[in-house]
């Protein structure tokens, strides 16, 4: 089995948590892709009434193609459940997200959800966060100054680029990835980053997840 097979296993497992009538936050990425496909199939087979709240244009497009009703977060009264991927999860179930530059929308949807499920292949589990670069969404204006501050603090910053162009997020901001190596105290770092003017949102998702579904060779593991 390869990594993609494990992603498929958890996508298919997670769709079982969706019930008729639910409003569901739909995350972003190559793992969520399998969830969205499985949800489209269930809606078709079981005639379910589901509203999807996508966290990226990519997910919205795919959901619509599959016949899932899609609404913007500000058009729904509440979100019952959000299912999303993650880039890294530590032993305390704290996570890094934003590898796919969607963490701002993902976090807004997650904090407005009654329940959050993460779906990951086993390679995403780690003892300590930090070996995956931490994405930070920043306002373009003054971003070089912010970059210098990150550098001074030893965060090893790197702008996310496509050749010589800055990659833009949904909100037309830049991403600076922080090469932290090992992250001592994620809560302290999250607060430090939030306190910096020009930072829109970082990719630390702390104390947010209720259930994690991990893909292994021998099937999905459910961590509650
Ligand atoms: C996007 C994310 C994704 O959930 C994360 O990058 C995991 O992606 P994948 O399922 O493709 O490994 O945070 O911003």
Automatic annotation (TrEMBL):
It comes from the Bacteria. Pathway: Carbohydrate degradation; pentose phosphate pathway; D-ribose 5-phosphate from D-ribulose 5-phosphate (non-oxidative stage): step 1/1. It catalyses: aldehydo-D-ribose 5-phosphate = D-ribulose 5-phosphate. InterPro entries: NagB/RpiA_transferase-like, Ribose5P_isomerase_typA_subgr, Ribose5P_isomerase_type_A. GO terms for biological process: D-ribose metabolic process; pentose-phosphate shunt, non-oxidative branch. GO terms for molecular function: ribose-5-phosphate isomerase activity. GO terms for cellular component: cytosol. It is an enzyme of class 5 (isomerase). Keywords: Isomerase. Its EC number is 5.3.1.6. The active site is at residue 106. CDD domains: RPI_A. It holds the Pfam family Rib_5-P_isom_A. Substrate binds at residues 28-31, 84-87, 97-100, 124. Catalyzes the reversible conversion of ribose-5-phosphate to ribulose 5-phosphate. Homodimer. Belongs to the ribose 5-phosphate isomerase family. NCBIfam families: PRK00702.1, rpiA. This is Ribose-5-phosphate isomerase A. It comes from Nicoliella spurrieriana. The lineage of its organism: Bacteria, Bacillati, Bacillota, Bacilli, Lactobacillales. The gene is rpiA.
């Amino acid at each position: 089995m390869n990594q993609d097979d494990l992603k498929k296993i958890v996508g298919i497992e997670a769709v079982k948590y969706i019930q008729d009538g639910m409003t569901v936050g739909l995350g972003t990425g190559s793992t969520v892709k399998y969830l969205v496909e499985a949800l489209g199939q269930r809606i078709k087979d079981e005639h379910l009434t589901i509203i999807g709240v996508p966290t990226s244009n990519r997910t919205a497009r795919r959901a619509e193609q599959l016949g899932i009703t899609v609404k913007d977060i500000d058009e729904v009264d509440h979100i019952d459940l959000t299912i999303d991927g993650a880039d890294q999860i530590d032993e305390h179930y704290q996570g890094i997200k934003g590898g796919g530059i969607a963490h701002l929308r993902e976090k807004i949807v997650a904090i407005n959800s009654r329940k959050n499920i993460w779906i990951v292949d086993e390679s995403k589990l780690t003892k300590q966060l930090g070996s995956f670069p931490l994405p930070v969404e920043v306002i373009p204006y003054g971003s070089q100054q912010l970059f210098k501050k990150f550098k001074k603090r030893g965060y090893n910053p790197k702008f996310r680029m496509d050749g010589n162009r800055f990659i833009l997020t949904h909100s037309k901001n830049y991403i600076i990835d922080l090469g932290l190596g090992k992250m001592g105290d994620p809560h302290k770092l999250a607060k430090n980053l939030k306190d910096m003017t020009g930072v829109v949102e970082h990719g630390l998702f702390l104390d947010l997840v209720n259930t994690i579904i991990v893909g292994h060779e021998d099937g999905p593991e459910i961590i509650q």
